[in-house]
Design goal:
alpha+beta, seven-stranded mixed sheet, 4 helices, globular
Length: 164
Amino acid sequence: MKFRELTFQDWQQVKDIYEEGIATGNATFQTSAPPWEEWDSSHVKNSRIIALDEADNILGWAALTPVSGRCVYAGVGEVSVYVSQNAQGKGVGKALLNELIRHSEQNGFWTLTAGIFPENIASLKIHEQAGFKTLGIRESIGKMNGHWRDTVLLERRSKIVGID
C-alpha cells in the first residue's frame, strides 16, 4: 500500500468510496456526496490523502475538515476516513488514519477530533488504536431518516505539536 495527496483527478473514485460509506447508514449524516468544488472548499488543503494498491487503485481516503474558522482553532481538525468495501478488514483504514495523523502534525495540527456513530465499531477501534480518547456521547445530535442518532466524540492530542 502506498499513499499520496488526494487531487481533483481522484474525485470520481473518492466520491464512489464516500457513497459506499453513506449507503451503510453508519458512516456520516450526509445523504449524498457533494460536488468536488464543495468538498474541496470544505476540507483542509494540506491533509488529504489516498491509499493505493500496487495497481494504483484507490483503496480509501482520509481528510481533515476545520472545526472552526476562528484563528485560535487553526490547529484543530475533524477526521474523515473512508475505505472501499473491497478493501475493508485489511488494515487500510488504520494505515490511512496513521498517515493522516502524520500529515496533520507536519502541518501544525495539535488536536484531531472525530464524531463516530456508536454502531461503527471498526472506525471506533482504529481511532482508539491511533491514540484517540473517547470524550463522551453526543446524544441525539442529529436526525437521520427521521431518527435521532448519537455520535461518540473522540479526540487525539498531538505529542509533538502545540506542546510547551
